[in-house]
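#lab-general

N.A. 3:47 PM
ok so I finally got the sequence cleaned up, no stray characters, all 401 residues accounted for. can someone with queue access submit it? mine expired

B.Y. 3:52 PM
send it over

N.A. 3:53 PM
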Amino acid sequence: MRPSLRHFFVAVMFVVASLSATSAVAAPVTWASVDVTMLSEQAEGVLLLTAHLPETATLPAQAELSVPKGSQIQWIGEIMGGAPDGDLELQTTMTTVGESDTYTFTLTSSRIAQIEILASDMMSFDGTTYASSIRWVPSQDVPQVRMAIRVPQTASITTQDPDAGLQPGDGSFAYYSKTIDGAKAGDELALAVAYTVPAAAAAPAAASSSTGLLAFAIPIVVVVGFVLIVASAMKRKKTAVDDDSAEETDDDSANDAASRPTAGDAVDEDDAARSGVAKRNMVTAVIVAVIVIIAIVAGIQTAKPQQVGDTITQTFNPGEACATANIQLTVPADSDPQATADSLFTALGTVEGLNTVTYNQKSSSLSVGYCESETTEILVREALATTGLLAPGTAPVSPTP
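B.Y. 4:20 PM
back already:
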């Protein structure tokens, strides 16, 4: 072989060997476990894919995670284990194979990666029954896959997976979940559930607020009454002491009363002054009591639902709402508007962060003002689901600023 050709083949073999070594180094690591969880954390359903590397894995590590084809990705990053603000967003590349989009990235600071997917199309409601379903096809073998769908704790399961069951969750929620061991690349893993929630009994939404205000009012009225009684008693006691003093003075000074004509006048002036102070104190106490009572009555009236035309409004917390959810309802034609409003307001009484809620009986709709830092439209809808008045097939919409 000629020297030039020999050098050429040596160079080609070196390049091939280098590319093979690079491919071996860049091969994605194998996950120890993956959690596929359906949540309702935002205005739309959210599917979380949370993948865990083995404890023995070294960083940085190149990894890949597949999602259903065409998924609306909200976020991909590393979970640092503290506040969500501390999680790190990842730079990714995406390839499509079959019915899956596979995202490739490099973990540098954490062994946990997470993909958040908007998933409102995975939920449905027909006016009575809620249904949720999730599926996932791994791009590599995974020793353990945990699948879960979050449901209200009061949910009654109507259609279930024989391998799944309810597990306790956080707050007022539970998780319908199952575990798959030894999942293989290309396996289609799925979990589905249908459930109903009990209807809430209709009760005046303002009852708790009014009761609380009355409980606050009673001690104030008692204190004001006590102050008035004490003031009156002190006035009577002072008057009696002054009368006794006046009688003793008259007895001891009977002989020279004529020589001191101005003393009686001074006593009369003192009595008049004391009487004037007592009257002013009494008037002040009465005014304060009236103001307190007026404020209490006004507070009670404010806490009650207010009806104007076709709308009934309940103020849960004063102030301007950060976002507004407009929710369509299905209300029987012969239902009492006030009873319907009371049922809706009662159901929302457990939701934090609400401002003003307005029920429009003409359009059969509900306008809910809330603070996004404390609650979400999904949580509002889940609370309203207990009334059985949500219109079927109404998917959550993005909050209105």
